[in-house]
Specification:
single chain; 6 helices; about 25% helix; about 25% strand; disordered N terminus
Length: about 230
């Protein structure tokens, strides 16, 4: 996650632009990852200046950051409709389909996105691709089914690796699952692959986000371009 000692001007510019989509009184989904962290910090500044919002974080990491910058938090138990979610992406294509989950929070991120009226994705120019698949696709699985699911995904043509933490143990998501990082190369038909993965018993969720992003704010240098999904 971004810290105070490092700065990425593109991520920062995209995150700042996303604040225009947040209104007083909004319930705001708070994404996970280095770009989303900038947005959380900037929202904290706005809250300090008087903006009234409540945030629903997509991970324990984001919850801790939001708390530290003074954003009041709530839960899906209280609000099942979110006004706007601000999150990052590992990749996006011309149809604003995404690969997400590099930070390990894809399950909660997809749940929050699905409950949001508007999903604003913030990204630097390196995340823009013609075809998804350069970034390995994260697939969250229950540990019991991990080997079976890995074999089935490999049969679809992917190189599959179990994600590990810094100590070399399996990475464990906030919901207690493991993540398989699946390198398919180019993914010419993301919806078809999404269906195949969703149909596999033992797969909890996958990192293909299709028809969820409303807007992508992509920063190249100091310029931020707003891309809207065609409905």
């Amino acid at each position: 996650m971004a810290n105070a000692n490092t700065s990425n001007p593109e991520k920062e510019a995209a995150a700042r632009a996303s604040l225009h989509f947040v209104r007083n009184g909004n319930i705001v989904g708070l994404g996970t990852g280095s770009t989303a962290a900038y947005a959380v910090r900037f929202l904290g500044e706005r809250v300090h200046a008087g903006l009234k919002i409540r945030g629903i974080p997509t991970s324990a990491q984001t919850r801790d950051l939001a708390t530290s910058v003074g954003i009041p938090l709530t839960t899906l138990d209280e609000f099942q409709q979110i006004d706007v979610t601000i999150d990052g992406a590992d990749e996006f294509d011309p149809q604003l389909r995404l690969i997400k989950g590099g930070g390990g929070a894809l399950l909660r991120e997809k749940i929050i996105a699905s409950a949001s009226r508007q999903v604003v994705i913030i990204a630097d120019s390196s995340k823009q691709v013609a075809v998804l698949g350069k970034f390995p696709l994260p697939v969250e699985v229950i540990p019991f089914a991990q080997s079976l699911v890995a074999k089935k995904i490999a049969a679809l043509g992917a190189t599959v690796k179990l994600r590990q933490d810094v100590k070399g143990n399996p990475f464990v998501s906030d919901e207690g699952h493991h993540i398989l990082d699946c390198n398919f190369g180019q993914i010419p038909d993301p919806p078809a692959l999404a269906r195949k993965l969703s149909d596999m018993p033992g797969v909890v969720e996958h990192g293909l986000f299709i028809d969820l992003a409303t807007i992508v704010l992509v920063a190249k240098g100091e310029k931020v371009t707003e891309l809207a999904r065609q409905r």
